[in-house]
Each structure stands twice: as C-alpha cells, then as structure tokens.
Description:
Blueprint: H1 10-21, H2 24-40, H3 48-66, H4 93-101, H5 105-116, H6 121-128, H7 132-158, E1 164-173, H8 181-184, H9 188-196, H10 204-211, H11 215-227, E2 231-234, E3 237-240, E4 243-245, H12 247-263, H13 265-280, H14 290-316, E5 331-340, E6 359-366, E7 369-376, H15 395-407, H16 424-429, E8 433-436, E9 439-442, E10 446-447, H17 449-477, H18 504-514, E11 527-533
Parallel strand pairs: 4-5, 10-11
Antiparallel strand pairs: 1-5, 2-3, 6-7, 7-11, 8-9
Helix pairs in contact: 1-2, 1-3, 2-3, 4-7, 5-7, 6-7, 10-11, 12-18, 13-17, 14-17
Amino acid sequence: MDTDGLEAYADELFRAALRICGNWNDAEDLAQETLLAALQYDGAPADRRAWLHGVLRHKHYDLLRRKYRLPTVSIDLVPDMPETGAEPNRPDAQTIRRAVAFLAEKHREVIVRHYLYGERVQDVADRLGLPRGTVLSRLSGGREALRKGLEMMDAYEKQSYRPERLDVSCRGRPGLHDEPWSLVGGDLMKQNILIVAYETPLTVVEIARALGIPTAYVEEAVRSLTDAELMARIGNRFFTDFQIRTPEQLERCLDVELALVEAHYDTLKRMADDYTDALRATDFTPALEPSARRKLELYFLLHLFSTSLYTAMQRLVPADEIFPDRPDGGAWIAEGLRFPADFDFSAGRVWRYTYGGRRSARWDSMLGAKRIELHIYDMQPDLNRYARGPVELRDGDLALLLYLLHRGIPIETTGLDPLLLQDLPHLADCGILGYVGGKPQVRLPILSPDEYGALEEIRLRHTQRWVDFFTPALSDALPGLKLELPAHLEGRVPAFRCYSCYSIPMAFLKRAAETGAFAADGAVPPMVLVLEDNNAGPR
C-alpha cells in the first residue's frame, strides 16, 4: 500500500482499538499491528479507511488468540556491535514494538525504516531529505534510547495505570463548535495528557511514558492541544495552560463557604428579599405566570450573587482577566476539573452546592424575529438541573425551538432538524415546557429587550451593596478558600481565580429552602427567554 498519508489514520485507529480492547496497552498493539499490515500490503484498496478498520477487527481476533503466547524474537537492535554469546530472555516482538513506540519522532522514524523495514541508510536519508550523517547519528541515538527503554519496560509493564477524567469548561465566549469543551470531551487520551502536564512541564516522551501511550499518538495530540491553545510550550517541554481543580480541593473549601453563609445568613436573606421585592415591583413581572416569575427571580438572584462575588474577589485579589481571541472563533479562558474515572459525584458534598455560570445564546433576524435570546444558569440535580436531552440540543437550538413553540410555528416549515422535537418530553420533565390540551407551552419568563434591560438596571443598583457586604466577609475567609496553583502558571491564571467561593449562592438557596423562605418547586431551571419581533403572543 502507498504509505503517503497513512499516518493520518494512526490516531483514528488507536481510538477504535481503545474502544474494542478497553485498555491502553492492547489498543496500542492493535493499532500498530494494523498499520504494519497496511505497510506490507501491496494492493491499493478503493476505500482505505474501511479497509484499515476491517484489518483492525481481524487483528483483534489474532491478538486475542496469541495474547499470552507471544514468541520471542531475535532482532539485532545494535548490528554494529556483534553478539559475543547467547543472550537469555531476549525481548519479545511485542516488547520491542512498544519500546520503539516510545522513542521520540526523530529517532523512531529512522529506527523503524532502517531496522524494521530494512531500508538502507542512504534510502532513509533520501526519503526523509536528511544528510546521511544525520541519519547515522539518529540511528545511534535511537539505539541508545531503545536500550534504556527496554531496561525500563518491565517497570512500565507491571505498572497499573488507571486513566482519570478531565471536565473542561470555559469563561468567556465558546468557540464556534463548543470549544474548548469539544476539544477534549470524550477524548480520554487528551484529557490525561492535560492532567499529567499540569503540575510540571514535560517533554512529549515524558508524557508518553507517564501515560503508557506510544509517543506517536502523544505527539499528534500535544500538537493539536498546543494549536488549540490549551497547552503551551517552554523549549521542548509542554504544559497545560489553564487551572485544573480537584474534588479534594473543592471539598476543603466547602466547609469555609458553608460557615460563611451560616454566619451571615440573616443579612443575606434581608438583602435577597429587598432585591426580589424590587424585581416584583416592575409593571410587567406581575403579569407573568407564577412558575415563570419564580424562575425569573431565581435567575436574577444567581446573577446578582455571581457578579457580586466576582467583583468582591477582584477587590481583594486584584488581577486583570482578559479573554483572548482563540483560533476557534471564541474568546475564552479554559478551566478544568480532574477526577477519577469511576468517581461518584453524587457521593460528594460539594456537588450539591455547585452551579454553572451564566450562558447565553442569541439570534438576530431569525425566523421572523428581530432578536431571540436565551439566558441560562445551570443548577444541580436536587434543584432540577437542566441538561441536554436525548438529541444534541445546543443552547442556540433550544432558543429557536422555544421561539417556534411560543409562536406556534411548525418546525418542518423552518429548515430546523425535526429530530429536535424528540427532546420535548425531556424539556417538560425539566420544567421548561408544560402541556395544555396536549400542546407544548413554554414555561419560562418571556421578556422584551427593554424589560430585560430594566431588570438588569435593578441588579446593577443592588450590586454595590452586595459587593460591600461580601468584601469583608470573604477577606476573613480568604486563607481557607485558597487553591493551589503550579508555580509556572503564576501570572497566567488571574489571582482571584485561585480561590473557591462559588458554592456560596447555592449554600444560601439551600439554607433558604430548608426554612421555607425559598420555594424550589416550580422555580427551576433558571432561564429567561428574550424576544423582539413584530408578532404578538402571550407570555
């Protein structure tokens, strides 16, 4: 088979192998066996991808049959140093392939071409566009690295590696395809690359050995993560260029946040009551259906909490927070949460007190509307958190779907995917929709831009009072809210982001719910739909 472009399938084959095998080591063997078969194949399949995946399946069966019966092989890895006697316990083929896989690219390529594929040194030099002396030097360096790798391989073979998971989100404006989450979501290898390169900058080879993954796969993944600006480079070392938190860190801070709310609950309650009274005093909120009004109040209460805490922390730990323009079209700063693959979120206390930051989706001149906006805060399950339904329903899709339902416009007349209608039962379960006479009705507060702006003005008027309250309260608690940050990230992460204080809003709401001061039933999810069009319709 023509080898041009074959490397482009390496990552895809590894991922497919990982799904089949369920572990790193077998997956790397399977992918390498498939690529080797392709290199040895003389034909030219019409569909290279389908052919490779067919070979992968057959090689998997072969691997299962011989997994524990691998023969040893006699491959002279150092042909310029003749053997002086028999060498017991020579490495088997699998071990040699694995050791070669951990070599850096410049060494790996010449070693594979010369020793495993039998190409002459001059042919390797010509094909790679290198001087003959450079190839000889890389062969020598590769042999030495291979010797060291084989000496270390037993330790790696015996090491029990359990991959972790990394949940990546962002502050700012996500990219056109939900970056940065989409860059690593569902990609366990990239998640673990970011995890191991967080505490200390590492070379690609060091990352590969830490994870037990061939360097070839890591090279491409690191290149992709660096291009996406989730990683940065210092010389030949790479590091994760955003803050990663752990459940243990957040749990340590939670007790401090709960104590703060308990100590100041009465004051917070009075300020929250004053604020919601101001929201209710407008000339349009009384016209909202009661459930929609409670959702509106909850949304704006979370909004006030969030902005006040953010501003107070900036007072206490001043730092600029700039959302740089990203290659994906967004302007964001990533943040991550690291946890074991089998971590039980429901068992941890901290998850009951977390909520997602404000998100917004906006459409202009769409479906006859001048403007469609959807503003969202996420909340945890015991307060009926909204989550995406069975069909991938992005915030923008949800905004359009809600507008169509509100105006009674059939989806099939719009060009939108009719499969989105499969999410209607899910949206009803979340409290976003209700049914009247068998027809779905939007159960969210629906405002005009002017009405939403009036509520924002109320929030801004109350913000200063809240900031003045939180500044001394957080100052007293600051030592217990500190999160560790690797030294090389100092100055790259805004200083006030190295503190955990964002469980406070949910801690207050739960405390209020316990006393009956806050009715969670029917108040969630906290969403607001803002419409500007020439069509009349009920709220």
